[in-house]
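Hi support team,

I submitted a single chain yesterday and got back a structure, but I'm not sure I'm reading the token output correctly. Could someone confirm the output below corresponds to the sequence I sent? I've pasted both exactly as they appear in my results page.

Thanks,
R.
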Amino acid sequence: MLKKIIDIGSSLTASKEENRHIRISNILILILMLLSILLAFPIFYENGWSVVLLLDSVSFFIMASLLWLNHLGKTKLSRVIAALYPPVITMVGSIIAKTYLPDSVFVYDFFDARVVIVGFSIIPFVLFSFIEKRAMFLIFGVVFLLVVAFDPIHSLFGVGYADFFGPLPKAYIVSGVYIDLVLFFIAISIYYFLLNINHLLNRNVELADNLGEKNIELSSLFEELESSNRALQENEKIINVQKEKLEDANEKLSEEVSDKSVELKQSNDELVKHNNELQQFSNTLSHNLRGPVANLLGLSNLFKIDKSEESRSSIAEHIYKSAETLDTVIKDLNKIVELRNNLFQIKEKIDIRNEVQNIWQVLGSSVKQSKAKLEIDIQSPIAYGVRSYFHSIIYNLISNAIKYRNKDRTCVIKVTSAKINNYCTVSVQDNGIGVDLEKHGDNMFGMYKRFHTHLEGKGLGLFLAKQQIEAMGGSISIESELNVGTKFTIRFPSVKLSEIESQLFYESDVTKIYLDVVNSITTLVWKKMPSPSEFKKVFTNNIEVFSSYNSDKWIVKLELLKNMPQREKQWILDNAIDAYTSVGVKTIAVIRDLESSNHAFWEEFAAITANKFAKVIFVDSFKKAKEKLINL
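Hi R., thanks for writing in. Yes, this is the structure output for that exact sequence:
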């Protein structure tokens, strides 16, 4: 704000020296305005509301008006007034004060005002440049006259020294002469000083001009050097380009080698992991099948040897039990194989509280029998993952907590959840009999590993839980203490469904099936013309998506099948539409060529679908199909 006031009146068209004097005049005006404000307080304190105070107020507004003159471009007039006004108003103020306040006049009042006027004599030398010496000396002449004629002017208004204190003493006259001489010498000194300053400024201009000429000569030399440098730089650029190409080639080669190394390491790690799993699976398979098979062989031999009806009946019963055991082992192993081969698992919204409460209801008979209590502390109620795996894991953990409860106290199971950095953490804690982790910690999640033989079980639940949580990209851990309780914690990545693109549900040589869980849209993409058997298999897999994930919208591009036999077309009309609508499909977006020759087929397809309370829309691209289904 202050800078803006100081710059009032300065302009780009004016010289630097002129702008400097304008800024100095603005500073002087601000100082005089501040001085008027400061003088108002002692004047009011000594004399109250008086003519002197009124004169001080008028001075403030006159100074403020000078800023407005500068703003209007009248800068020279403003400087003239700013230089003349202080000595003149000092003289006027001295006369008015002595006229209206005669009782407060002292001898030194005649010296004070005169000294102040002498002080103001420096103002014209500050506000005007040397080339404006006419204005400078004219204003100084006025100030000089005011000082010399100080007493006559006062006497003219009847407030001279003699009017208050009698005839003028010699000391007073001598003091006045001294003041006049001081003023004269001040003027000569300032003028001489300005003359020297002006000479130095002119010398600086000459030096600046010479420097400019030298700069021009140097610039021509620099231009010659730059032309030489440009030629060198062009050559250097060519070299650098070749160098960069070589470096890029080397970098790409290094990246490819590094990527291949990482891929090979990952492949090797996966291979080692799969080999270990296959070895474990083979050992488990051999161990768990050996017993039932050996029993069946032994019992079969006994059945052949022993001819008594009673013995054969007993042997047959044992053979049946061994067969049941063998069937159970095969089913368990089949679960593991299915879990490992299920590559396309759809991530869904998981309501953790709802899942836990549903599991608690499913375990109703065990809960009632054990009188177990459930505590739920859900900090993060929603997660996104494979819901069927999550349900199976929590079911196994809660059912184990009930099974391995401490019968000497009430069974209390606490389920908590939290979300940290896009990872969902769920804990299942109980106050049961616990496990000795120092003894069994390495085998806690092994296949068919059991640690409490006094209770029934197969030792498969924790193994499946570990396989399922790892398939979700997560992990499971355990904390336990004998006769205190156990706490299982699972941790898996949880992202918002809006961040998950359409998920691949099924893929074969002829097609891909995607599921958009957010908008309940299933998309069927054909890779090539399928055979009749492949065609029906793909539609069967589509039915599985609709029924399993409540997908009620379907996008399909059947134009690839325009040359399919009439029998397959009829199968779509007679069977496929019934199957889709029966599992809840409400809208079908068919992508077709608008110039297709199959209009009759599509019209019949739409009519039959409409009779099944579903809607068919025709579009020419997958993008438009999805937009229309979302906006329905």
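A quick pointer for reading it: Residues 9 and 70 are 5 Å apart (CA to CA). Let us know if anything else looks off.

Best,
Support desk
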